[in-house]
């Protein structure tokens, strides 16, 4: 079996599970102060109530200081987020995870044996360091070791283990919410952390990281271990191609592999691959904010991370016991707090099953509307002294958060951000997230102590503003190829005497489209599905009628309005106009742009093209783009991909067509993993000038 077809090889699942032990510790640190919080900082018999040898029964703190103690782990998380990206890139994913457990072990034990408030706070900060670094390195490791078909499920394990940690900290914390057992509650994360230290060396390093460090043979061995008996040649080729470019990948796996090719590729890894478009260097956060395109993307991502925390979910997780004490006694409030974590657990499972089916934007809007509505209902339940309404509102608020506001900001961080800006935007997003987490943990108990249930009106207002912001700033990308449609429409805006002929308007009737033998689905992505005769005739018509199409003709592709053409920066747009100025000023200059990935397959179409350009991308990039849109307009209505359509049909056909395209003479191939939209558009413009 090819490794691209594998889903859950046993050793890979083992590695993911061991990595996710950190996520469990993270969840425990988040949830541990909730149920035993009262006995931890409120002393029944005053400051001198000491029954344990050398250890006070509690650590007396007022509301403000306790709020700081609870949220102080966010300070550690913030510090780790600032430096975590560089640490995991320099030392590797596996070593970083091993060392990261020091914070959990030392911090947890320090909290457990605290004799002073400062000791407890320092312990929480140390735990926070591990939480922050782990929140960066664990998802990275999981994404890099998982199979393509199992990546979604494996990636969800991280959040799943966080939720389990929160849940068990509440369940186990209930019998430990007494003197002196509350200390055991804070010590528990040290034990799974030690287990991870012992077991992580039995896991392999990330193959992608090894390739990025030119350790090619180690990367191959690592990937083979992860995939068991599967054939890894194609997957390894794609990893090397994504990291180092097509030339290096071809040296290693064009017609099989050999040690000689590996060595040769390794020796040339430091050479710039200018002929492939060049690798855009990583951008600092300052460069991200200076660039108009990445600034808009970065701003949108950062605001959604702020929304995630300011919506108030962690206020509920930290202080649900106190919230339920508005209407119930201490014991029942603790039980309701545990049920809240169960609701969060179930809702997280539900989110895993629907997030790819319904898309990011719809779920995020539903979640923000839900948290707003249920925050208001919570206030009404508080004001009218209706315990049932208060409980239902808390549960539904948590469920709303879990299906959208919780997971989606982390998803769009990688999905929206260009590769060159990903590291900086990811680090900044994590920092913002931890800062807001700290702010909520610090401020909420003070506000809640003053106005109790009314405090959720603040969260309702924030969620309402979040809904408006998301509605106007987070479109769900639609369309088949972002780069081709984007560049096509950019050129059409500048070159006024231009018509566009889209390949997608010339598919055969559905009953004539080939059926894929494996899936028994209609294969709309093979050349045999296109009516090249009509397609070629329409191009010929435009060429012989001064760039005009038949009267009344309308392309269905024009209905796909989310084309990304607004992502071109003003600076690039101005430069583009300068390059194309001779054509803009020439009233007789007519352009016919033919858009589609299968253009070069048909000789009749190919012969009519004066300038030939094609765009390439890795599996991950194309899959991400495909997943981000929910469908697109076609001749027969509105198309939405069936399950596994991309993996079984789109990607294999893409590889077949791409292999053909490289044999076509005078084709400019632009790697969109390495070139921004600005760079891509400028290269296309220069190619036009060169050819014409």
Automatic annotation (TrEMBL):
UniProtKB keywords: Membrane, Transmembrane, Transmembrane helix, Transport
One Pfam family from the record: Sugar_tr
Gene3D superfamilies membership: MFS general substrate transporter like domains, P-loop containing nucleotide triphosphate hydrolases
Membrane topology type: Multi-pass membrane protein
A single Gene Ontology CC term: membrane
Entry keyword Transport: yes
GO molecular function, one term: hexose transmembrane transporter activity
Cell compartment(s), UniProt: Membrane
Ranges that cross the membrane: 12-30, 64-83, 95-115, 121-142, 154-174, 186-204, 332-355, 362-382, 388-412, 424-448, 454-474
Sequence ranges assigned to domain Major facilitator superfamily (MFS) profile in this UniProt record: 15-478
InterPro entries xref list: GLUT, MFS_dom, MFS_sugar_transport-like, MFS_trans_sf, P-loop_NTPase, Sugar/inositol_transpt, Sugar_transporter_CS
Family that this chain belongs to: Belongs to the major facilitator superfamily. Sugar transporter (TC 2.A.1.1) family.
Name of the protein in question: Major facilitator superfamily (MFS) profile domain-containing protein
């Amino acid at each position: 079996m090819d490794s691209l077809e594998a889903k859950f090889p046993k050793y890979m699942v083992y590695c993911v599970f061991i990595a996710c032990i950190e996520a469990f510790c993270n969840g425990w640190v988040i949830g541990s102060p909730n149920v035993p919080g009262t006995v931890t900082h409120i002393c029944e018999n005053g400051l001198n109530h000491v029954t344990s040898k050398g250890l006070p029964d509690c650590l007396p703190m007022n509301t403000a200081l306790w709020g700081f103690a609870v949220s102080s782990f966010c300070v550690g998380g913030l510090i780790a987020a600032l430096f975590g990206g560089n640490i995991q890139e320099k030392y590797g994913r596996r070593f970083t995870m091993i060392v990261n457990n020091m914070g959990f072990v030392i911090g947890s034990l320090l909290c457990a044996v605290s004799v002073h408030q400062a000791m407890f706070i320092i312990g929480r900060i140390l735990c926070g360091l591990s939480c922050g670094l782990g929140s960066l390195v664990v998802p990275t490791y999981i994404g890099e070791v998982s199979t393509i078909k199992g990546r979604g499920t494996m990636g969800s394990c991280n959040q799943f283990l966080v939720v389990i940690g929160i849940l068990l900290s509440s369940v186990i914390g209930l019998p430990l919410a007494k003197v002196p057992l509350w200390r055991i509650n804070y010590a528990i994360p040290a034990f799974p952390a030690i287990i991870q230290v012992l077991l992580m060396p039995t896991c392999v390093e990330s193959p992608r990281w090894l390739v990025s460090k030119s350790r090619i043979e180690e990367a191959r061995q690592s990937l083979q271990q992860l995939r068991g008996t599967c054939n890894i040649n194609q997957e390894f080729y794609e990893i090397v191609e994504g990291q180092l470019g097509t030339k290096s990948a071809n040296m290693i796996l064009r017609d099989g592999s050999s040690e000689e090719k590996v060595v040769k590729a390794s020796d040339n890894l430091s050479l710039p691959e200018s002929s492939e478009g060049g690798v855009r260097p990583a951008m600092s956060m300052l460069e991200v904010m200076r660039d108009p395109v990445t600034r808009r993307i970065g701003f949108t991502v950062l605001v959604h991370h702020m929304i995630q925390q300011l919506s108030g979910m962690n206020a509920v997780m930290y202080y649900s016991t106190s919230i339920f004490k508005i209407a119930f006694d201490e014991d029942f409030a603790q039980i309701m707090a545990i049920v809240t974590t169960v609701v969060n657990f179930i809702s997280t499972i539900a989110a895993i099953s629907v997030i790819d089916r319904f898309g990011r934007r719809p779920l995020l809007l539903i979640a923000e509307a839900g948290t707003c509505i249920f925050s208001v209902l919570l206030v009404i339940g508080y004001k009218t002294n209706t315990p049932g309404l208060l409980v239902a509102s808390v549960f539904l608020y948590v469920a709303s958060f879990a299906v959208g506001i919780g997971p989606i900001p982390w998803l769009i961080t990688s999905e929206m951000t260009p590769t060159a800006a990903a590291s900086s935007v990811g680090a900044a997003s994590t920092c913002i997230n931890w800062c807001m987490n700290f702010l909520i943990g610090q401020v909420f108990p003070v506000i809640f102590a003053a106005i109790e249930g009314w405090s959720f009106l603040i969260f309702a207002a924030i969620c309402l503003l979040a809904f408006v912001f998301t509605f106007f700033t987070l479109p769900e990308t639609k369309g088949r190829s972002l780069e081709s449609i984007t560049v096509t429409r950019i050129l059409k805006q500048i070159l006024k005497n231009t018509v566009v002929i889209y390949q997608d308007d010339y598919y055969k009737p559905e009953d004539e489209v080939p059926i894929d033998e494996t899936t028994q689905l209609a294969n709309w992505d093979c050349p045999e599905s296109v009516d090249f005769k009509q397609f070629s005739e329409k191009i010929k018509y435009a060429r012989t009628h001064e760039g005009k199409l038949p009267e009344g003709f309308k392309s269905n592709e024009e209905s796909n309005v989310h084309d990304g053409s607004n992502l071109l920066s003003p600076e690039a747009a101005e430069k583009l106009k300068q390059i194309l100025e001779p054509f803009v000023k020439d009233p007789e200059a007519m352009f016919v742009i033919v858009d589609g990935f299968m253009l070069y397959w048909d000789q009749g179409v190919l012969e009519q093209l004066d300038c030939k350009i094609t765009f390439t991308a890795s599996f991950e990039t194309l899959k991400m783009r495909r997943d981000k849109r929910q469908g697109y307009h076609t001749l027969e209505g509105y198309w939405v991909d069936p399950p596994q359509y991309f993996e079984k049909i789109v990607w294999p056909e893409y590889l077949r067509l791409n292999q053909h395209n490289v044999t076509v003479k005078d084709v400019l191939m632009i790697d969109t993993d390495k070139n921004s939209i600005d760079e891509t558009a400028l290269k296309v413009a220069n190619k036009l000038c060169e050819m014409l």
